[in-house]
Amino acid sequence: MKDLYIIVEGETELEFLKRVLIPYLVDKGIRSHISGLKITMKGGGHGFNNIEHFKNTIRPLLRYSGQPVITSLIDHYGINSEKKLPNYANCIARNTVEDRISCMEKSLADVVNAMQPYPFFIPNILRHEFETLLLADPKAGFALEDERITQAVLALCADFPDIEEINCTPQGAPSKRLEKIYEEHNQKYNKVAIGVDVAELMGIEAILQKCPRFKSWVDTIFLAVTQSNNNGR
Fold first, then answer.
1. CA torsion angle for 148, 208, 165, 96 (degrees, to 10)?
2. Residues 6+ away with beta carbon under 8 Å from 92
3. Helices 147-158 & 174-184, crossing angle to 10 degrees?
4. At residue 29, does pLDDT exceed 70?
5. Any idea what the Cα angle at residue 8 is, between residues 95 and 60, rounded to 5°?
6. Burial track 59-73 (b if 16+ CB lie within 10 A, e otherwise)
7. How far apart are CA 151 and CA 36, in angstroms?
8. Cβ atoms within 10 Å of 186's Cβ, excluding its own
9. Are 157 and 204 in contact, with CB atoms under 8 Å apart?
């Protein structure tokens, strides 16, 4: 099996990997090394604010012996300029969200392969952002929150036939909707403190069932990691 490195935007996503995704992959039989890495910004901090930050983060991994599988966990919602992702203008002009994300993933792969041809990079951009995953089973995930908040999140999800269709406009992104729900009940939505707890309580099986794009990424990871007996880094 190949080692696996997952590049993420920040602390919330890294905690999600440690507490939810990596235990699932191990439970499914992956026995190689798995690590998450935050995109590091020049001068400190983390986040996908500039493609150069991503390149600086992935560059050392591309030189590892054994060619580990490398993938990403990046929000589609936050990509809004050529500075963040080359070819952005062309991608955002596509007719559907799925086409836009697929175009962005190809552009991200092009960035990596321009640095060094690399057959084991899996570009992954979330539709639409991390908070989308939290809406897979809100009754279970938000069970420990204020009952009014739980009911409001359930009502939000009931308005859409597919949670991955909850739009990514500045006002309508899942994170903005959750922030508004919490504010309406005099509380504050904290992505790090609440988000991963909700995902862990809900369980990854619910996410895989309700988020087919996310499931496809996880399936692709599993196939890529298990296709080789090379354990080197």
1. 160
2. 100
3. 140
4. yes
5. 115
6. eebbeeeebbbbbbb
7. 33
8. 7
9. no
- Domain ranges in the chain are 4-127+211-226, 131-195
Report residue 75 as tokens.
Answer: 């929000």
Amino acid 208 reads L
Please report, rounded to a whole number, the percentage of residues in the chain having pLDDT higher than 90: 80
Best CA proximity match to 83, nearest among 40, 114, 50, 48: 50
Q: CA 112 to CA 224: how far, in whole Å?
A: 17
Count of Cβ atoms closer than 10 Å to residue 33 Cβ: 13
Using the 8-state DSSP alphabet, how is residue 134 labeled? T
d(CA 139, CA 156): 12
H-only helix segments in the chain: 11-16, 22-27, 51-62, 88-92, 97-115, 130-133, 138-141, 147-158, 174-184, 196-202, 204-210, 212-226
Asked if residues 221 and 25 have their Cβ atoms less than 8 Å apart, the reply is yes
Helices 51-62 and 97-115: crossing angle in degrees, nearest 10, is 50
Nearest to 13 by CA among 22, 24, 4: 22
Model pLDDT for residues 58-70, shown as the tens digit of each residue: 999 999 999 999 9
8-29 as b/e: b if 16+ CB within 10 A: bbbebbbbbbeebbbebbeeee
Q: Which two tokens stand for residue 95?
A: 């007719």
Q: Which pair of tokens denotes residue 66?
A: 């054994």
